[in-house]
Design brief:
With 158 residues, the chain is mainly alpha-helical. The chain has one domain: Up-down Bundle (Four Helix Bundle (Hemerythrin (Met), subunit A)). Helices cover 72% and strands 0% of the residues. It has helices at 15-36, 41-68, 74-97, 103-126, 139-153. Helix 1 (15-36) packs antiparallel against helix 2, helix 2 (41-68) packs antiparallel against helix 3 (74-97) and helix 2 (41-68) crosses helix 5 (139-153). It starts with 14 loop residues before the first helix and ends in a 5-residue tail after the last helix. Bound molecules: fe (ii) ion (FE2) (2 copies). One fe (ii) ion (FE2) binds next to helix 3 and helix 4.
Length: 158
């Protein structure tokens, strides 16, 4: 069973944004399935790192866009991003230290984020005409954003 099911209440109403958010949910579910299949711990941790990287990259693009347009709620929005990233970092550390993912906590944190962050912060942001979709970046820049965040998560240089 999937960890998180997409719900109508997650919709911001902007197709590009909803698509990215759905992608993040798919990624989370894929890692959850790996845990279920008892895939090697190292691989799961690596995938959790990918998720952290994808979410961090997604947030970085939103923040870039907000800054560019002088968005009035930039600080509050960024604080919520930082809070969620801290939580995922914590969950990953816990998983690394133990043998299993704290499923309930993971699910609750992510649900909380999808519900509250998408519904409030993101929907307000993306309803402004200038910020209907995230800035688009090419595949290579995107991959390097994800990799940088992943490296930071695991305390690697670069
Ligand atoms: Fe956001
Ligand atoms: Fe978003």
């Amino acid at each position: 069973m999937a960890l998180i099911e997409w719900q109508e209440s997650f919709c911001t109403g902007i197709p590009g944004v909803d698509h990215e958010h759905k992608q993040l949910i798919d990624d989370v579910n894929a890692v959850y399935a790996m845990i279920d299949r008892k895939v090697e711990k190292e691989l799961v941790i690596d995938s959790l790192g990918d998720i952290y990287g994808s979410i961090a990259a997604h947030f970085a693009l939103e923040e870039q866009m907000m800054k560019k347009h002088g968005y009035d709620q930039y600080l509050e929005h960024k604080a919520d991003h930082d809070r969620l990233l801290d939580e995922i970092r914590e969950i990953t550390d816990e998983f690394e230290a133990s043998t299993d993912l704290n499923e309930k906590k993971f699910k609750q944190k992510l649900n909380d984020w999808f519900q509250n962050h998408f519904k409030t912060f993101d929907s307000r942001l993306h309803k402004l005409t200038d910020m209907m979709s995230h800035v688009t970046v090419d595949e290579i820049s995107m991959r390097s954003l994800i990799q940088q965040a992943k490296n930071a998560l695991f305390g690697r240089a670069g």
